[in-house]
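Tokens in:
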């Protein structure tokens, strides 16, 4: 689980780097960018995202993300 706060308006993209776990060196499998505007509107996202290969021609699998958003009330 990852929790992030202090998120400013206008920050509409979440960038995630995915790594494999190796005994010698963790290698980057790929990166994804998620548009957070749906999350802001719905308050919840439960979806699978493809991890594109370096050239974007194939997929290196998928990552399952469950995201919740609640606007801070001050």
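Residues out:
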């Amino acid at each position: 689980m990852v929790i992030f706060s202090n998120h400013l308006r206008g920050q509409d993209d979440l960038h995630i780097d995915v790594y494999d776990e190796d005994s010698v060196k963790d290698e980057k499998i790929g990166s994804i960018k998620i548009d957070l505007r749906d999350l802001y509107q719905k308050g919840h996202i439960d979806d699978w995202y493809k991890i594109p290969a370096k050239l974007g021609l194939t997929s290196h699998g998928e990552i399952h993300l469950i995201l919740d958003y609640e606007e801070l009330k001050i």
